[in-house]
Design brief:
- Chain B: InterPro entries: DHS-like_NAD/FAD-binding_dom, ETF_a/b_N, ETF_a/FixB, ETF_asu_C, Rossmann-like_a/b/a_fold.
- Chain B: It comes from Desulfosarcina ovata subsp. ovata.
- The complex is a heterodimer.
- By secondary structure, chain A is an alpha/beta fold.
- Helix content of chain A is 29%, strand content 32%.
- In chain A, the strands form three sheets. A nine-stranded mixed sheet of chain A has the order 11-10-9-12-8-1-6-7-13, with helices on both faces.
- In chain A, strand 6, helix 2 and strand 7 form a beta-alpha-beta unit.
- Chain A is globular, with a radius of gyration of 22 Å.
- Chain B has two domains: 148 residues, 3-Layer(aba) Sandwich (Rossmann fold); 117 residues, TPP-binding domain (Rossmann fold, 3-Layer(aba) Sandwich), CATH 3.40.50.1220.
- Chain B contains eight helices and 18 strands.
- In chain B, the strands form four sheets. In chain B, strands 6-10-5-1-2-4-12 form a seven-stranded parallel sheet, sandwiched between helices. A five-stranded parallel sheet of chain B has the order 15-14-16-17-18. Chain B has a three-stranded antiparallel sheet with strand order 7-8-9, with helices on one face.
- The chains are: A alpha/beta, B alpha/beta.
- Chains A and B meet through helix 4, strand 9, strand 10, strand 11 and strand 14 of A and helix 3, strand 6, strand 8, strand 9 and strand 13 of B.
- Bound molecules: flavin-adenine dinucleotide (FAD).
- Flavin-adenine dinucleotide sits at the interface of chains B and A.
């Protein structure tokens, strides 16, 4: 079995709004780059599945050569190989086309996992577009995966609870976070070993972007109006808060 | 603009999409997942008892082509996410997800970088597919009902084996006027008991940050934020939550945010109307006591 996990390197997603700056409509280049939060959940799920099914695990990314040093974390976590398709498009169709090229190139991938949503464009659609292009099944927000012969049994997080679903054949699954797939911290030996692993670099293709044009990007203004309540006497703080909430008709 | 809504049989969810549809033109047509009459009045209404969105792609492609729909509207929910991408590929249609603003000239806005920025797009091709973030559009008043006709051509490539409804405790987040929410600062799952106690007196729902959900202290269905529930209560009490932009994305429409955090520099205070810089273990029991005394 061959499992591929899609991972995207993004600017630090925990930069507070007040410190956030744009250059050319994108996050300023000074922010630390890291693998997206949900992508790390997908890598962790991939590693667990690899261990359970004795599968091969390939990490696939679309991005810049500089991303390689960041992506090595995925190898240190348990990935067997890293394939980087080089390109800088932000268009979901172009990215999906490039990822498809890498998957087609591998030839024997059975299952593709991806984080539920990237931590920069926050779209959550690239993996589903990829599934459409591959002609494979797509299911989002998967929290558990089991392989039984030709069948995949998966649990899907829904607004109202969980669904247990089953399908056969190849599929693309987006992975949500659960306590069981909190990303492992790689051991030092694995980090060193990951540094030596060769990386397959693939020249990207221009692809066909979708017909929707990004015309502007703005940082919304957030006016801070916080009234800090005194804390010397907590009983009084509590009654003050409740009466203020009532006075202003919030409660 | 000829528009088709695809949504589960839920008055609020449908209402929000009808509002968006009306921005672009007349009242849209609808494909509702479920049985019975569809809330609202439509020129054309279809239904399917297929619960799995992935099984609807083929018949939807036919319906959209035959009906010559120029716009397809879904909510940014599990269902919408399941359908939008594959449908976009089959129709060669642009897909814009998590839309939070729309205007008649086919301009839409969507947040990026966890809500720290907002991008505006113009759509120049029909059909186009949009998933709309919940609670950003006031649900339209859906007068009357429409008896739908069945959608034809549905198949089963994905089988629904079983469904487990989340344990519902107290008031659902969706309808709550007051929400008491805990983050990683709560320190343990047991400590959420304090929040539940306060919520019971306030007639409030309990929510959580992703930090608390990842720790296993709260169910994923209680997560508030960009990838959790989008809520719009009158009061949102954030306890031990740092206020990451992705969390704030879920409470953009809360009227009054109260933050309890022992770090005075925590980002949550930038969004809060009232702030208490203190260990929640001192604040929450005092609030419970004050509420009890009021009773
Ligand atoms: C694509 C993407 C989507 C995301 N979606 C969501 C989402 O939907 N919802 C969400 O919440 N997050 C989401 N996140 C994660 C988000 O970035 C943060 O990691 C998360 O919100 C942090 O949770 P937290 O505030 O509970 O934890 P922390 O950031 O660890 O904050 C804990 C806070 O508790 C305070 N504290 C500690 N002890 C006490 C005490 N005794 N009394 C009072 N205060 C105390 C600390 O000062 C700190 O501010 C997403 C991230 C990404 C990249």
């Amino acid at each position: 079995m061959h499992i591929a996990v899609l991972a995207k390197v993004v600017p630090d997603y925990e930069v507070p709004s007040a410190d956030f700056e744009l250059t050319d409509s994108r996050a300023h280049s000074r922010y630390t780059r890291m693998i997206g939060l949900y992508d790390e959940n997908a890598i962790e799920t991939g590693v667990q599945l690899k261990e359970a099914c004795k599968a091969k695990l390939t990490i696939i990314s679309y991005g810049k050569t500089e991303d390689i040093s960041v992506l090595r974390k995925a190898i240190a976590m348990g990935g067997d190989a890293l394939h980087l398709v080089m390109g800088d498009s932000d268009d979901p169709f172009v990215i999906a086309e490039n990822l498809k090229m890498a998957i087609d190139g591998l030839g024997d991938v059975d299952l593709v996992l991806a984080g539920q949503q990237s931590a920069d464009m926050d779209r959550g659609v690239v993996h589903s577009i990829l599934a459409g292009m591959l002609g494979w099944q797509f299911l989002p927000q998967i929290s558990r995966i089991q392989s039984e012969g030709d069948l995949w049994m998966v649990a899907q997080a829904h607004e109202n609870g969980t669904r247990n679903l089953q399908f056969s054949g190849k599929g693309v699954l987006s992975i949500t976070s659960i306590p069981e797939n909190v990303p492992r911290i790689p051991v030092v030996r694995a980090i060193f070993a990951a540094k030596k692993k060769p990386v397959e670099k693939i020249e990207g293709i221009p692809g066909t972007p979708m017909n929707a044009k990004e015309v502007s990007v703005e940082i919304p203004k957030m006016e801070s109006v916080c009234e800090f309540l005194p804390i010397e006497d907590m009983a009084e703080t509590a009654t003050t808060l409740l009466s203020k909430l009532r006075e202003e008709r919030y409660l | 603009m000829k528009t088709l809504i695809v949504e589960v049989m839920d008055t609020k969810r449908i209402g929000e999409l009808v509002t968006v549809g009306r921005i672009f033109g007349d009242t849209p047509d609808i494909l509702a997942l479920g049985t019975g009459d569809v809330p609202g009045t439509y020129t054309k209404a279809y239904f399917t008892d297929t619960a799995v969105g992935a099984n609807l792609i083929d018949p939807l492609v036919d319906l959209i082509r035959e009906g010559d729909y120029q716009l397809v509207l879904l909510s940014a929910t599990t269902l919408g996410t399941e359908i939008a991408g594959p449908l976009g590929v089959r129709l060669g249609a642009p897909v814009l997800s998590e839309v939070i603003g729309a205007s008649a000239d086919m301009t839409v806005t969507r947040p990026i970088y966890g809500g720290k920025a907002v991008a505006t797009f113009t759509i120049s091709q029909a059909p186009a597919i949009l998933t709309v973030r919940r609670k950003y559009f006031e649900p339209a008043d859906l007068a009357g009902t429409t008896t739908p006709v069945p959608l034809t051509g549905t198949g089963t490539t994905i089988t629904l084996i079983s469904e487990e409804a989340a344990k519902s405790e107290g008031i659902p987040l969706e309808d709550a006027e007051v929400i008491v929410s805990g983050g990683r600062g709560m320190g343990s799952g047991e400590n959420f008991t304090l929040l539940r106690e306060m919520a019971a007196i306030l007639n409030a729902a309990v929510g959580a940050s992703r930090g608390a959900v990842d720790e296993g202290w709260a169910a994923p269905t209680l997560q508030i934020g960009q990838t959790g529930n989008i809520v719009a209560p009158s009061v949102y009490l954030a306890v031990g939550i740092s206020g990451a932009s992705q969390h704030l994305a879920g409470i953009a429409n809360a009227k009054c945010v109260v933050a309890v955090n022992k770090d005075e520099d925590a980002n949550i205070f930038k969004r809060a109307r009232f702030g208490i810089v203190e260990d929640y273990k001192k604040v929450v029991p005092a609030l419970i006591q004050a509420l009890k005394e009021e009773q």
